Amino acid sequence: MGKYEIIIYWSKEDEAFIAEVPELPGCIADGKTYEETVKNAKVIINDWIETAKKIGREIPEPKGKLVYA
Fold first, then answer.
1. Three-class SS of residue 57?
2. Is the pLDDT of residue 69 over 90?
3. Which of 1, 19, 36, 40 has a 20 to 30 Å separation from 11 between CA atoms?
4. What is the C-alpha to C-alpha distance for residues 5 and 63, in angstroms, rounded to an integer?
């Protein structure tokens, strides 16, 4: 697993924490606790990378901290 930035926030609508990995399009996880969400994000990042390898998709290099407006 690379060192990708993970953005975690609480979703009132989903009643769960949501983790988004901006550098990996569509890579999103959730969980009932912050800790569970981090754990699930690690799993989904690995799954995203494995799937990308299988289908020949380019895997972005982690850029570290990203800046958002």
1. coil
2. no
3. 1
4. 8
| Contact status, residue 67 vs residue 24, Cβ threshold 8 Å | no
Three-state DSSP state, 3: coil
CATH 3.30.160.250 at 7-55, yes or no: yes
Question: Model's pTM, two decimal places?
Answer: 0.84
Residue-averaged pLDDT of the chain: 92
Q: Which residues contact 54 (CB under 8 A, 6 or more apart)?
A: none
Asked if 49 and 42 count as a contact pair (C-beta separation under 8 A), the reply is: no
What residue ranges do the domains of the chain occupy?
Answer: 7-55
CB 45 within 8 A of CB 37: no
User: How far is Cα 51 from Cα 16, in angstroms, rounded to an integer?
Assistant: 25
